Amino acid sequence: MTENGRISAVLTGLGTCLPARTVTNDDLAQRLDTSHEWIHSRTGIACRRVVDVGTGTAELAAAAGAAALESAGRSSCDLVLVATTTPDRACPATAPQVASAMGLTGVAAFDLSAVCSGFVYGLSVAAAMIGAGTCDSVLVIGAERYSAIVDPQDRSTAVIFGDGAGAVLLERSRRPEGRGVVLHTELGSDGTGDELITVRPGERYLRMEGREVYTRAVPTMVESARRVAEAVGWQPEDIDAFVGHQANLRILESVAKRLGLPPERVIANIEDVGNTAAASIPLALAWAADRGRLTPGDRVVLTAFGGGLTWGSAALIWPDVRPVHG
């Protein structure tokens, strides 16, 4: 129980899974009208990970989920929630397969679709279910195989997206000093922008209106981050780390600047993995934790924006957690 008597959700485990195969900008330049300099200057991306043929989203998700459980010193949970835009099949959901692959047959499992905002949406749902007493522990996994839906000949999307998975375990609060506590979340959507990021009926590949997405993403992420910070009584100077969805380095820098945050408080690993949609925030958290960029007690704001249009933010206190990589 927290000091005000409410049950809280606490982040106790963090895991990742990245494909072994790296595709560099120079690799893409061999088949596209582009160059490393063109891609890097516009996106901040130098390379991305891509799965081998035959590897599905469920396999990535299960590896990241198992790693998060190991990080928490746990072997099971009450619920497996998989946030993904790229399920292996339209039906059934991916999460039950992921749970079974982890040896968790019988637990609750479902998918959540909010595109690049999926992880923050999942975090919010998980925290609410723990707070309501529905679950004692929830595994939230963001997993994507964008190589399955990106047109390899479309320069506007092929250079941006990568594959990967990241996961966290949330548990009912049993820890002192509030470390790991998810303090507040806020979510939003605007269906009038549903055609900006889409896979249209009868089509295989993702289409994105990049310029318009950028125009909408920056102010929306700024306002969402401000709202969640204000809800927990934080001013910009109180935020130790800002972890935005890793869509584009320009977006991250613009959002941070408008929030009044110095560059050293911005977590960005997009250069090494590209845009991994729902997996990007947990992958960035693990990257930062491995490098000492996040320390126990840090005040952290997460913010995402994605297709739908959807967006969301979360405020939490960073725990004493060691990421495990699957």
TrEMBL record:
Pathway: Lipid metabolism; fatty acid biosynthesis
Family, as annotated: Belongs to the thiolase-like superfamily. FabH family.
Residue ranges constituting the Beta-ketoacyl-[acyl-carrier-protein] synthase III N-terminal domain according to the UniProt record: 110-191
Functional summary from the UniProt entry: Catalyzes the condensation reaction of fatty acid synthesis by the addition to an acyl acceptor of two carbons from malonyl-ACP. Catalyzes the first condensation reaction which initiates fatty acid synthesis and may therefore play a role in governing the total rate of fatty acid production. Possesses both acetoacetyl-ACP synthase and acetyl transacylase activities. Its substrate specificity determines the biosynthesis of branched-chain and/or straight-chain of fatty acids.
ACP-binding: annotated span: 246-250
The record's note on its domains: The last Arg residue of the ACP-binding site is essential for the weak association between ACP/AcpP and FabH.
Keyword annotations: Acyltransferase, Cytoplasm, Fatty acid biosynthesis, Fatty acid metabolism, Lipid biosynthesis, Lipid metabolism, Multifunctional enzyme, Transferase
Signal peptide span: none
Protein name: Beta-ketoacyl-[acyl-carrier-protein] synthase III
CDD domains: KAS_III (cd00830)
Alphabetical GO biological process terms: fatty acid biosynthetic process; secondary metabolite biosynthetic process
Record EC number: 2.3.1.180
MF annotations from Gene Ontology: 3-oxoacyl-[acyl-carrier-protein] synthase activity; beta-ketoacyl-acyl-carrier-protein synthase III activity
Active site: C116, H245, N275
Main location: cytoplasm
Catalytic activity from the UniProt record: malonyl-[ACP] + acetyl-CoA + H(+) = 3-oxobutanoyl-[ACP] + CO2 + CoA; 3-methylbutanoyl-CoA + malonyl-[ACP] + H(+) = 5-methyl-3-oxohexanoyl-[ACP] + CO2 + CoA; 2-methylpropanoyl-CoA + malonyl-[ACP] + H(+) = 4-methyl-3-oxopentanoyl-[ACP] + CO2 + CoA; (2S)-2-methylbutanoyl-CoA + malonyl-[ACP] + H(+) = (4S)-4-methyl-3-oxohexanoyl-[ACP] + CO2 + CoA
Pfam families: ACP_syn_III (PF08545), ACP_syn_III_C (PF08541)
NCBIfam families recorded: fabH, PRK09352.1
Subunit structure: Homodimer.
Domain of life: Bacteria
Stretches assigned to the Beta-ketoacyl-[acyl-carrier-protein] synthase III C-terminal domain: 231-318
GO cellular component, one term: cytoplasm
Subcellular location: Cytoplasm
